[in-house]
Amino acid sequence: MNYYNLKDKEEVVDFKTATIKGQGREKGLFFPSTIPRLDEDFIRNLSYLTDEEIAFQCMKDFVGGSIPADELKKIISETISFDIPLHQINAQISVLELFHGPTLAFKDIGAKFMSGCLSYFLKDENRKVTVLVATSGDTGGAVAHGFYKAKNIDVVILYPKNRVSFVQEKQLTTLGENIYALEVNGSFDNCQDLVKQAFSDEEINAQLFLTSANSINVARWLPQQIYYLLALKQWQKTENEKPVICVPSGNFGNICAGLLAHFRGMPAEHFIAACNENDGFPKYLKTQKMTVQKTVPTLSNAMDVGNPSNFVRISELFGNQFGAVKHKISGYSVDDEKTMETIKNVYLKYNYMLDPHTAVAFASLEQYLTEYPDKKGFVLGTAHPVKFPDPVEKATKAKVEIPDSLQDLIKREKKTVEINSDFEELRRFLLNKN
Ligand SMILES: *Cc1c(COP(=O)(O)O)cnc(C)c1O
To answer: I want to staple 364 with a disulfide (CB 3.0 to 4.6 A). Which of 119, 126, 235, 274 is the partner?
Structure first.
């Protein structure tokens, strides 16, 4: 499979190059040059296949040529090494629980897959790659765990001091080895600015090979198709109608992967992009204009994105036809008040705890179902409530139980390097780390 640069279609690369480089010239995103169909029999027979077989069928065409089948199978089995249950809440709504992985968020899947691919590509090389990421909380932990002890890869994570939750900080800062956590005296935006400066700094790039690990990278974006198929496998056991699929969206990598699977033949009635007050996409569906908005801080902070990077991929999938996008995707914007109310109501009614991100999606799907009362669907549960205990406990007036897998983690000691929001300090750290 080849990938072309959406900003410069002359630039065509294979999966290996797309994974190592992350993005193309002029910061363009890579996009697959063909959309391989999923076999109809494969879709019909999902329930007879193991999760690993489904994931392999899903990914093989995208990776083919760059990674041999047996290696790809190994990467896949390390990636989906935990349950992804479709949990029914009421007659119309289920939650696909993507938060049983090592850092209790769906990003574990993309991060681990990308780490497996990158490690494979670098295993016989002498060069070392440094993965540099800024995080508002969730990405950092998933990347840290996904890349922990990966050969020839260092990971440097910048996070805003005192602005990530207790569990998130432990996930980021307690691994050590090839994972470096930088605690920045500043905001998430400051962290992101520092990372951007590093990517354009000549001296740093001459000494280190820097890459990012966000959903811009095809190796993190594409494997997200897998869990839509795993959801469908479970859905088909009890349902005959196609599902409405509702995705809590920030950078739109996740929903874009679902749409890609749909274009390949995965049945879906409709998609919903569930947003918090950062509502650029719902506005676009109304006005046909996508504008860069200033980021508004919300309870679902992993979705606080003013300029979603995967929008261009969605547009490309639909042949840049606004009418086609609008026909397949609805968009809703849910504010913090409604998010809290949803967490509370779902807990009281169904004894089920939602994290704020999943709650935004739950509220959006409920709203859609008032307009289309004969439909059914599922929301993607992107994080475990224990990652956001303050709002969840406030809304439910109940204690969030800490899963066993975290008991050991929260006892571990935090190791960080504290820096100011000053590029010189980051530069010094990067150039001297090894
Ligand atoms: C990253 C994240 C999202 C948003 O996913 P995108 O692919 O950026 O749209 C939603 N929920 C949680 C918990 C996240 O960490």
So the answer is: 274
